[in-house]
Amino acid sequence: MPTTKPLRILMTGANSGIGEVAARHLQACGHALTVVCRSRERAEQSLSWIQAPSQIVIADLSDLHAVKTMAHQLCVDGQQFDVLVLNAGLQYAGVDRPRWSHQGFELTWAVNHLAHQCLLQLVLPLLQDSPTPRVVITASEVHNPTTGGGRVGQPAGLGTLAGLDQGKGAAMVDGTSPFSADKAYKDSKLCNLLMGLELSQQQPQLPVICWSPGLVIPRTKDGFFRESRKANPWGQAVFGFIARDLFRLTEDPERAGDHLVSLVLGQHDATGMRYLSNHVVAPGRHIFESTEPSPEATDLERAHTLWTLSEDLINSSLQ
Fold first, then answer.
1. Which residues, 6+ apart, have CB-to-CB distance to 77 below 8 Å?
2. Disulfide: which of 91, 119, 140, 299 matches 185 by Cβ 3.0-4.6 Å?
3. Diameter of the chain by CA atoms?
4. To which CATH superfamily is domain 8-216+252-318 assigned?
5. What percent of the chain has pLDDT over 70?
6. β-pairing, 285-290 with 272-282?
7. What does pTM read for this prediction?
């Protein structure tokens, strides 16, 4: 890895899955992590490996007030960071009714997008003193309806963003589709890319890296699919067997975590937004490379509108 000096890294989604793999590697290399975890109980269960100077901060991403309180404390403490990694992700496929955040937003979108934009806006000043700042955002290829995962089920698409105009209680971002947990996840990943695009317009000197880790289905009960397993254990077991063991379409968590490490530590001096995807080229074989996101994910006007409407919802929720 090109980076040799210790970095200060603020990271969500480090207590399981590819985020844990990456965080453990980064800490072992001597970098100082500040890891966001939703509760002290969860931290005690899954983050006992964190050692000083790394630290744990508590914030439930389904609660914008908790995100604000945590970010404010980081600012009060005079924390400074070199890298912000927005990696936490939630999906609850198999559930036929929406779940809601503390502020009344559909839970997938609230955690995957709204909380991350809130955190990003609050802590962005803490990156300003770094000689090599960057933001890394974990998206997914399912944001693109032409990819393998994006073609399964309802495609990602934000429509007119009517759900954001409606605000609290909107089941879907487009405001018109019947609720689908699968589409809600795809839409949230599209929002991640659009957020990164707008950030790169507002902060043209800041490298913004969005990436897709590929389909990662570990054999453990933890990781990204844990909520979907609770809702549909047999369906997820069959899906995992077919995708991972039969057709060999999945990526190993260790390799996916290593890709995230490379984005944090690697040479990425180019400003603006880059998108890299770890996509399948043959059974059991992936290529991790720069690629073009979907046309909707490159729409500058849509990116700006999404950012503005999201900011309005955040501000009104925090009043």
1. none
2. 91
3. 52
4. NAD(P)-binding Rossmann-like Domain (3.40.50.720)
5. 86
6. antiparallel
7. 0.91
